[in-house]
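Worked example

This section walks through a single chain of length 136. The input is the sequence exactly as stored; nothing has been trimmed or padded.
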Amino acid sequence: MPFIQKDLPQYHYADDDGLIGLRGAMYYFQNIHTWHLHSIDKGNDVLPQKYEAGWIYTRYHVVLKQKMDYRGELTLRAWMEPYRQPVLVNENIEILQHGKIAACGKFFLQAAEPGISNSGGVIYNRIAKRLCQRKE
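Given that input, the structure is written out below as tokens.
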């Protein structure tokens, strides 16, 4: 079931033409992702204290289907695919305006312990309590 949030178009997310494009869509993607993780108590504000880890964006994919205007609210939807590993998250995101998908995409995240290098795909698995190689 997706996490759904309504938002109003923000002028500070606009491109030079006055419409909200790819850059603005990325800001909305980050917003809905943050709100979603906070709603399930897995946000970066509590993760370090509870699990001694934090989320790191490893990849993202965004498709802009149409630029967004200011004539109607935006519906932001986010949902996670089932976990393949306890430290990886794939989150799907859609932005709808006027009943149509304006942008869609996916964030790929992994949990990493503060102070542990993430270079070379090495991450700290808090459940296994060991360093492990990330599988692509």
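What to look for: DSSP finds two helices and seven strands in the chain.
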